[in-house]
Specification:
Blueprint: E1 25-26, E2 32-34, E3 40-43, E4 50-52, H1 64-84, H2 88-106, E5 107-108, H3 112-126, H4 133-146, H5 162-173, H6 189-200, H7 208-216, H8 226-237, H9 255-264, H10 272-285, H11 296-306, H12 328-338, H13 341-361, H14 379-396, H15 403-416, H16 418-433, H17 439-457, H18 470-477, H19 486-502, H20 511-514, H21 520-528, H22 532-548, H23 552-555, H24 566-575, H25 581-589, H26 598-612, H27 617-620, H28 624-634, H29 640-658, E6 661-662, E7 694-695, H30 699-725, H31 732-735, H32 739-751, H33 755-772, H34 784-803, H35 809-823, H36 829-835, H37 849-861, H38 873-889, H39 901-912, H40 925-958, H41 964-975, H42 986-995, H43 1001-1017, E8 1024-1027, H44 1029-1033, H45 1063-1068, E9 1086-1089, H46 1106-1115, H47 1118-1128, H48 1141-1154, H49 1159-1171, H50 1175-1191, H51 1197-1216, H52 1220-1233, H53 1243-1252, H54 1267-1280, H55 1304-1313, H56 1325-1336, H57 1341-1357, H58 1359-1363, H59 1366-1380, H60 1385-1388, H61 1440-1444, H62 1450-1459
Helix pairs in contact: 1-2, 1-39, 2-4, 3-4, 3-39, 4-6, 5-6, 8-10, 10-12, 12-13, 13-15, 14-15, 14-16, 15-16, 15-17, 16-17, 17-19, 19-24, 24-26, 25-26, 28-30, 32-35, 33-34, 36-38, 37-40, 37-41, 40-41, 41-43, 42-43, 42-46, 43-48, 48-50, 49-50, 49-51, 50-52, 51-53, 56-57, 56-59
Length: about 1450
């Protein structure tokens, strides 16, 4: 029974999911406070930040203020106390969840002071360095909610340091240990962190922009994948919402610099999208403060190019490796500020304009900078915008794939300019209603009209005649109720339901005689409303005809089951939307229906009729005896369908009697007698005067509920008890079902919280709100029925969060009984309990050391149980599912928890804050000391539990009788326990080392990955020293940004004529492993490895740790090495094997940690493998060679010199045996080894030349060129183009794409085509046109033909740039007309002939405004001619995962780790 005003404050953890906090909220003038003793004080001046307005409309709202104040005082006291006592788990975690629940129930009902303190505390918590990943993610979600309403806190109220958040983001997204399995993050952590950064960057200090640029400018190197990280960081972190007086400290520091970079780069690198997103955000946040005019042609030209549309008669598109489409969401922001891909653009662009107009005209005043008056969109601007889009939207309206996008676009256009958007849609709708042969046309037009319905019916000064179309539209839609077309029928029901929701169906024809102030349009509406009755009668007649034709025999074959189809259920939903009472009553009582289809439809119509009359529990009391008698008979029927319907009747009866719910959903709070109903069409409800009428259970209704339960439920329970005790056994007909299953289901109902039902209703409400809301005006301009539904959802949310999260004794008893029931006689029951239901948390992966410490070893030991036989396939699948679920859900469990002093300081401030005062006293000094000691003890205990779990799993693996599946399971679980903050116990190191030569290939794979991680664990730190580049080069860089080769960074570049040839020369050099440093700028503090720290000798055995000794002993064993190499050179999956980065990491760590001590044992095997042409042997030597080169980074000169004397002949031998199958593997090997270029041996370049020269000229390559190298490159390209000038006639290579020609001429043509998508600068257009005019005068018609086909592509890809130079447009028109008048037939028909794209004109020099002397320009153009795009197979093995980490989800990376 639902109690009014039941406080229900719980101290248990809220386990329910997060709902979107799109809650309508208002500020309250006063509230109550709690004094130190917890007693209520009188009204105070405390003003909440923002309350949820719907709480004030609940029937028990008078008690919510006190409840919220008490709960807030409790949260403040316990949260701050947990922080002060350094109890992150469970104290801080539990009370932070309580704060999250508080936000859902009461909004931000706390003072500004508390709001700021909560944010600062959560910010400190989420950025703690060693925080458990899952805990960090939960704190981040709460912090996002606290920061969500940005208008509540200005930059003056709150400032957050950016560096702790950046360190966290860098540590997680660009983790150096995640790809090795040393740390496991939740799958959604990337998205959560990015959302958190977007919420926090608003409050970064003004000085943060300069600090960020100093941090990330050294990473700007277009030849390095680090460029993606640098620009991505800028997009995420750089603040763009700043007052105008701070712009000089904000975007003005980087705008010209980054815009020049963007304009200079034309080959669509992967990081270009990040720049576009940053510019779009800057434009949206600073409308009127950034001069975009010089860049508008470039902006729209690039946007057009990014859509990758087919061009010309040959439908030419950009090469795949150059396609890098921009994000549509950011494009529409940018376009809006300047005022599937195309359909998404059409859908989202009007919505973005609506948001801008709302911001300029209707948004509530806040601290955020307003758009200047001179920059605001006028009505004329909006009309021009609508005219530019309406044609495309009307065309897309009938697209089979884009009609939904078009409807959404038209809905927003109707909000902006209804007088322009609605009439053409009305015209098409009327035409579609008269057409019987095109049902898709009617469906599309009705779908669009549904979205525009509110704009049509609302009183609107711009389009007042729109309301006169309501009656014709309703009458015209009636033929759509067609039993032969379910889709059309459903959209018609939706159309009618939408309009009848917005329009009160009231006859106002007599109103003109009573109201003399009506306009002519209003008079026409009043007279037309007399047709509502005819419409309703005709609509019901069509519904009855639909029902008559919808019997089971007519809708489906009789042999099918009686289950409804999806479309039939949708029709039922439509039938229940509108209804007329007497006609429905007569139809339902005078006809006989079959029960499967038509009977259900009639029942739905009757249910809708009951809703119209609002039959609440009070009305049911009149029929108390009849209902009790009917239910008593029906629930005992033996027919399953009959007693199922009876139980459904009982359920709805109990709900009507016992629940709290609104009793009416009228469009106005009053009746229709006093007001003029046509004035209520589309009217928004007034939240402050909603006038909700509630049904609150009375005492009579409560008595009726208990009477029904006593009569119907109690006897059944007694019969069950008698059957269980054996006193009164029941017959088969009495039992009817499996009682064990029935009892289990009943017990589950007692545990149920109706969350699934609430989520469904919330989703439905959100969809309806989205289709009917007025996004232009905002301010909760929803219709009254929708607002009432939202109030009801708020009430149901309270039931879930308050009552649903209360954990009682009965719940504990039920759970224990269910567990006993599940595991008593069913051998697999325990496994199913561990697995859990689909998409739920697996009990075997709970983040608690006590839990996993018991469950994981028990899961492995169950393989020793006699009842656990793998002969049952179901058990094998169940075990695989559990292991897979553990892998997918496992996150690193924390061991070392620390609380910073900043957290403690903020917690003290929360304890001392007022309104309300914390209900507990602050901890004493002794308690604080005890809390610090307990924190240290907890960390020690957690470390011991971790080691115990590892040892328990190892004990299981030592059992010789353990079946193979459980051995694999234990190995997998053990690999999940590798960590970067705690070394693996030596016994586990021994196990994984031995497993490298295990008979099972799956265990060997796990062992290889684990050993690579262990090598990372055992890596010894090297000392680094700070150096100043100017001290090394003797040259100070000039002021500003100096890009490219210059005297100041010449010492960094490879010089084959100055190689170190002795130990002294080797040690005197400064080696910088970051290849991007110095290209753009130098880091603030440049740290390099100290020369004195370069290891001269191998690590002595006596100084090794236990784990290092184990690895040393095994890899010093020749038999172990022989067997290891034999296994590594075996073929796994023929034709599918590739370079394995895990093996590379293993050998890299081995040679890095131990030097060349193992090389004498490995070298004979390497020579044998290099001479073997087999694919698996070549792949093995690739992996070891790459690891050897990378692992030798810090070796001494003598070791490196000996290494390359051996390695160069080995690589030459291997490359002579290269095959098509091993070509890609060697490419990956070379790319991986080149990450740190071997400065000691110039021969390495010669060794790899054979590989590089095998690439075709069309392969996209990145070559970092100096000035002389660039000239050499151009000379080589021109040499390859010479075959095109050897003949006077330029042939038309029509079929070259489909042939296998490899002659020089074809290769030259392809080389020219590589650059034909290039963008032109305005300065180059006259040169291009001059070349085209010269070709147009050629005697060869092929050459003249090529001019036309080239013009198609050139004009399209440079459209807006050309439009910015009108004189050149006239030249192009003249040239085209000249060629169209050509006497050659092919030229006249060029527009319809399929011709290949011709080569472009010769390469042009960079534009004058980008030409500068080397080292002195802002951006030297030669450095922007290439990006680090490696050819297929030339991807670095250890940098590829890091390069993709920002764009791929954690789940994908987890999947790749698991599969490896």
């Amino acid at each position: 029974m639902e109690k009014v005003g039941d406080k229900g404050v719980t101290r248990q953890q809220n386990r329910h999911g997060q709902h979107e906090q799109d809650l309508l909220e208002i500020k309250s003038d006063q509230t109550m406070t709690v004094d130190g003793d917890g007693d209520m004080a009188g009204p105070s001046v405390f003003t909440p930040q923002k309350e949820i307005v719907y709480n004030g409309l609940l029937p028990y709202s008078d008690r919510l203020d006190r409840e919220a104040t008490e709960l807030l005082a409790e949260i403040k006291a316990n949260l701050s106390r947990a922080v002060l006592l350094r109890e992150l788990w469970p104290g801080v975690a539990f009370w932070s969840r309580k704060l999250f629940s508080f936000l859902k129930l009461y909004g931000r009902r706390f003072s500004k002071e508390d709001h700021i303190l909560f944010i600062k505390l959560l910010y400190e918590l989420v950025t703690l360095p060693n925080l458990e990943p899952h805990m960090m993610q939960s704190y981040a979600r709460l912090l996002i909610q606290l920061l969500k309403k940005k208008e509540l806190l200005s930059r003056d109220d709150l400032q957050l340091p950016w560096r702790p958040l950046y360190d966290l983001y860098d540590r997680v997204v660009y983790s150096k240990t995640e790809h090795l399995g040393l740390i496991w993050f939740p799958s959604s952590v990337d998205h959560i962190l990015k959302a958190l950064i977007k919420s926090c960057r608003l409050y970064f200090p003004a000085s943060s922009t300069k600090e960020m640029l100093e941090e990330w400018r050294p990473l700007l190197c277009v030849f390095d994948m680090i460029m993606q990280k640098a620009v991505g960081n800028m997009e995420l972190f750089l603040p763009t919402v700043m007052p105008p007086e701070e712009h000089s400290q904000g975007f003005q520091l980087w705008f010209d610099e980054l815009m020049t970079l963007w304009v200079s780069v034309q080959n669509q690198p992967s990081w270009e999208g990040h720049l576009v997103n940053l510019f779009a955000r800057l434009a949206n946040d600073n409308i009127g403060y950034v001069d975009w005019n010089p860049y508008i042609p470039t902006i729209f030209t690039r946007i057009l190019r990014s859509l990758n549309l087919p061009v010309g008669v040959s439908q030419m598109v950009a090469p795949r490796y150059l396609t890098n489409s921009y994000d549509i969401g950011h494009l529409v922001l940018w376009i809006t500020a300047l005022l599937s891909r195309l359909m998404r653009l059409l859908q989202r662009l009007p919505a973005s304009v609506v948001r801008r107009v709302h911001r300029e005209r209707h948004a509530a005043p806040s601290w955020i900078t307003l758009v200047p008056e001179c920059q605001r969109l006028t009505d004329t601007d909006l009309q021009e915008f609508t005219r530019s889009l309406i044609g495309a939207a009307l065309q897309a309206m009938f697209s089979k794939t884009g009609s939904t996008d078009a409807a959404y676009a038209l809905q927003n256009l109707a909000l902006l300019t209804p007088e322009l958007a609605i009439p053409p849609v009305l015209e098409k709708t009327y035409a579609a209603m008269e057409t019987l042969t095109e049902p898709h046309t009617l469906t599309a037009t009705l779908s669009c009209m549904i979205g525009m319905a509110r704009s049509l019916v609302s009183p609107n000064n711009h389009y007042p005649e729109g309301r006169t179309h309501v009656l014709p539209l309703l009458m015209g839609s009636l033929p759509g109720v067609d039993p032969n077309d379910f889709s059309k029928c459903m959209i018609t029901f939706q159309f009618i339901a939408t309009f009848t929701t917005l329009v009160p169906l009231v006859d106002c024809s007599s109103a003109p005689s009573r109201h003399s102030d009506l306009t002519e349009t209003e008079k026409d509406l009043c007279f037309a409303s007399a047709e509502f009755e005819d419409f309703i009668l005709q609509f019901l007649d069509r519904c009855f005809a639909l029902i008559d034709s919808s019997t089971l025999e007519q809708t489906r074959d009789e042999t099918e089951t009686d289950t409804q189809t999806h479309l039939e259920s949708l029709v039922e939903l439509g039938l229940s939307s509108t209804v007329a009472l007497q006609k429905v009553y007569n139809f339902a009582t005078s006809n006989i229906f079959e029960t499967c289809v038509s009977g259900r439809m009639v029942a739905d119509m009757c249910r809708a009729a009951a809703k119209v009359t609002r039959v609440d529990g009070e009305q049911l009391l009149k029929y108390q005896e009849d209902m009790e008698r009917i239910l008593s008979v029906c629930v005992r029927l033996r027919c399953k369908r009959a007693y199922t319907l009876a139980c459904s009747l009982l359920e709805h009866t109990l709900r009507s009697l016992s629940l709290i719910y609104p009793t009416e959903y009228r469009s106005t709070s009053g009746g229709f007698d006093t007001d003029l109903p046509i004035q209520d069409w589309g009217r928004a409800g007034d939240v402050a005067a909603l006038g909700v009428c509630w049904h609150v259970p009375s005492q009579e209704e409560e008595n009726f509920v208990f009477q029904l339960l006593s009569r119907l439920l109690h006897p059944e329970l007694e019969r069950i008890k008698g059957h269980v005790s054996g006193d009164h056994p029941m017959s088969r007909y009495d039992s009817r079902e499996n009682y064990r299953e029935s009892i289990c289901q009943i017990m589950r109902l007692l545990l149920r919280t109706h969350k699934k039902e609430f989520d469904s209703r919330w989703k439905s409400f959100t969809l309806v709100k989205k289709s009917m809301e007025n996004r232009l005006h905002g301010k909760k301009q929803h219709i009254r029925a929708l607002l009432i539904d939202r109030v009801l959802l708020q009430h149901e949310m309270r039931k879930l969060v308050v009552d649903g999260s209360e954990y009682k004794v009965v719940h504990q008893e039920l759970l224990c009984d269910l567990l006993l029931l599940s595991t008593s006689t069913y051998s697999q029951g325990a496994l199913y309990c561990l697995l859990g239901v689909h998409n739920s948390v697996c009990q075997a992966s709970v983040r608690d050391w006590d839990c996993v410490g018991e469950v994981w070893p028990a899961l492995v030991r169950c393989g020793l149980s006699p009842s656990m036989t793998l002969e049952k396939s179901s058990i094998g699948r169940l075990l695989d599912d559990i292991t897979d679920r553990i892998h997918r859900q496992h996150d690193t469990i924390g061991i070392y928890f620390t609380v910073s002093e900043n957290c403690v300081e903020i917690a003290n401030q929360i304890t001392q804050s007022k309104n309300p005062t914390a209900c507990l006293e602050a901890p004493s000094i002794e308690e604080l000391k005890e809390g610090l000691q307990r924190q240290r003890i907890r960390n020690v205990v957690a470390a011991r539990k971790y080691e115990k779990l590892v040892n328990d799993l190892l004990d299981c693996l030592e059992d010789r009788e353990l079946p193979w599946k459980f051995e694999h399971m234990a190995t997998d679980l053990l690999s999940l326990l590798l960590r970067d903050d705690h070394p693996l116990p030596p016994d586990a190191v021994l196990f994984f080392t031995q497993s490298l030569i295990h008979d099972s290939i799956s265990i060997r794979k796990v062992a290889i990955s684990a050993m690579a991680a262990i090598m990372k664990q055992l890596k010894r730190p090297r000392q680094k020293v700070s150096v100043k580049p100017s001290d090394i080069s003797g040259i100070e860089d000039p002021e500003g940004v100096c890009v490219g080769d210059r005297e100041g960074n010449h010492w960094l570049q490879y010089d084959s004529s100055n190689l170190p040839l002795s130990e002294e020369q080797w040690d005197s050099q400064h080696y910088v492993e970051k290849t991007h440093w110095g290209y753009y700028s130098w880091p603030r503090e440049m740290m390099i490895y100290a020369p004195s720290e370069k290891p001269k000798d191998d690590l002595p055995y006596e100084k090794m740790s236990e784990g290092e000794k184990i690895i040393f002993e095994y890899f010093s064993d020749p038999e172990f090495i022989d067997q290891l190499i034999e296994f590594l050179s075996l073929e796994d999956r023929k034709g599918k094997d590739s370079f394995n980065p895990r093996r590379f990491c293993l050998f890299k760590g081995l040679f890095r940690n131990y030097g060349d001590v193992f090389l004498p044992l490995l070298w004979p095997h390497l020579e044998q493998l290099a001479s073997d042409p087999h694919e698996s042997s070549q792949r093995c030597v690739c992996e070891i060679t790459a690891g050897l080169i990378r692992g030798s980074k810090l070796w001494s000169f003598s070791k490196v010199d000996r290494l390359w004397q051996l390695l160069c002949p080995l690589i030459r031998t291997a490359l002579t045996n290269i095959t098509v199958e091993t070509f890609t593997d060697w490419g990956t090997c070379i790319a991986t080894a080149c990450v740190v270029w071997p400065s000691s041996s110039g021969e390495y370049l010669n060794c790899c030349t054979g590989y590089w020269l095998t690439w075709s000229p069309n392969s996209p390559r990145c070559i970092r060129m100096s000035g002389s190298a660039l000239a050499e490159f151009v000379t080589r390209v021109l040499e390859r183009l010479k075959p095109l000038t050897s003949e006077p006639e330029i042939h038309n290579h029509v079929h070259e794409e489909n042939t296998q020609e490899t002659d020089e001429r074809t290769q030259a043509v392809k080389l020219l085509k590589t650059g034909q998508n290039g963008l032109l600068y305005p300065e180059h257009i006259p040169l291009v046109l001059a070349a085209l005019e010269e070709m147009a005068g050629s005697r060869s018609w092929h050459a003249r033909f090529s001019v036309l086909t080239y013009l198609q592509i050139m004009v399209f890809y440079n459209l807006f740039t050309l439009l910015s130079v009108p004189a050149e447009v006239l030249c192009i028109r003249k040239l085209v007309m000249q060629l169209l008048l050509d006497e050659q037939l092919e030229l006249n028909s060029a527009s319809i002939l399929a011709a290949p794209p011709p080569p472009p004109p010769p390469p042009l020099p960079p534009p004058p405004h980008l030409q500068s002397s080397e080292g002195h320009g802002r951006h030297h153009p030669q450095w922007f001619t290439a990006v680090p795009v490696l050819p297929p197979g030339l991807q670095s093995a250890d940098t590829a995962p890091d390069a993709e980490s920002d764009s791929s989800s954690q789940g994908q990376r987890r999947a790749s780790l698991h599969s490896s």
